[in-house]
Amino acid sequence: MPVLVPYHQDEYLPGLVDDLPAGAVPTEVRVELTGPAGWSRQAPIYAAAADAVAKRAGAGGLTTVISGCCCVSLGVLAGLQRAGVDASVVWFDAHGDVQTMETTTSGYLGGMPVRVITGYRPELVADAIGLRALPEERITLVDGRDLDPPEAEYLASAAIRRSTVEGLSAASLPPGPLLLHIDLDVVDPADLTGLRFPVAKGPSASSVVDAVGRLLATGRVAAFDLAATWDPSTPDPAGSRRRLVEALLAATGA
User: What's the topology of domain 3-252?
Assistant: First the structure.
């Protein structure tokens, strides 16, 4: 069963589980949060996620995590590292997630986790959860098509690998075991309702499922980290969210 971390930033999302298929009863991470908004307030979420992942990863097999925010991936990676898994990262996302506190105009922390993974200002959150930085070349960004100018500038000179969903191949993957992170806003919004930050001209839901299947078939994926970045209070009359989550969980065997 997957680990469920039902938060978007510091907002608890009790309805997020409603988009899980029947029978997929997860282990839920729930924490008490204190202090003002920011990394320090959210760090206990990621620390608890790291605890849950370390226990699962230590037992072997594929660890599956479902959350409402890309920042939870920081805890997933920290948990793998704690279990002795030196994982690289494959990051499906319509956005770059390489902003910094100095470059962001919105202050949105969900736009920064890839940059944190590379070692940006570890005192903000990485040190608190025991996350060790990865070299840029051990990260592949897949279909990051909506980039703010500072992100585009950074990625132009960074060693982070880039790929489209359709073009993803063994040559575009970083070495070693993999943390496979899927922000579902990578999917074209015509195929998926209620996304918080939809970006047009993306891949279809079926092509994302196919790409995930190809990566899982390599046998290198140590953790599958699914960020369901939609507002669960929005209606999904056609059931597109549930069908996509069902297909992805079926691919992992969760």
Answer: Arginase; Chain A (3.40.800)
